[in-house]
Amino acid sequence: MKINLLSKIIFAVLLAFTVNSFVYFGFANIYSSTILNYANFQEQFQAGIYQYRILSGYLLVAVYEFLSFLNIDYEIFKLKFVSEDSEPQMYLSFYILNTIFILLSAIMLVLITELKSFSATYSEKILIIAVALFSIGLSTFVVVPYDVSSYFFLLLFFYLLLSYLKKPSSLKLIILSIVILVSTLNRESSALSLSLAATLLYTKFGLKKETIIPIIVLGIVFLGVYFGLRLTSETFTTNDGNLLIQNFTQPKNILGILFWLVFFAFTIILAKDRKPMKHILLFHLLSFPYILLCFYTGILYEIRLYMPLFITSLLLTKIEFSKIH
């Protein structure tokens, strides 16, 4: 039985809410227990690479301060914490912020899968949305304020980019630039939007001005925000140290690499033919600087690092460029 667009959005939103709520309230968080305290959060996220992810930090603090005005009895949530200094109010702030953005991401997933250029059966569309949402839920054992919001901005960019490909215009390019600007204020992984843009523009137009000019414009916006944030700070940090050896020697990080490989293989297997396979491979190739930084300075056990690559590749499996005209 097929359902209309509004019903599909309602289902996706309810699925996202259900998955996220069970993750936050059904399990005691072990991995991120040290930042579930306002003072600890401020100390960690105002230093190093984290200090440049200002949008999500401001939003989380805003939610935390809003909850301060409410007379909430946190005992009703039956929360269990590993660290004694963990604050229910801080944990609930993370939950609210990330729930809002996973709901928005669910809406964007539906809108993208309903485009004419998304060539999939009704069942495939529903399953792709569900796989993306469950994967986001699985990755949130690492509680941070900027990941889920970054998925939303990436999906929003994807949707607007497909509209731009259909009928390029200066106005649409300006809107795409604004999304890049805002998403870079949130997290520097917005660079993956540039990789996506380069993949789709090159596939549609080849190595012509229709590809080169938008990439230059979007690249200037990204670099302007990226370096602007660092130049206006007291320090100029691009990473938090070399973790390359640990990523290839520690069992948990090796498990993280396995996650990357299995979920990459999943999108390749799901691709309807050789064309989307090439798009996925090209997207990963153009995302090499991000991948290299993940291996060099990231903790690969934190599978959230692969999520933006996975979600994008998942959607690329069904994009048909012949229908973008």
TrEMBL record:
It comes from the Bacteria. It comes from Kaistella antarctica. The chain crosses the membrane at residues 6-31, 52-72, 92-113, 125-142, 148-165, 212-233, 253-271, 280-299. Keywords: Membrane, Transmembrane, Transmembrane helix. This is Uncharacterized protein.
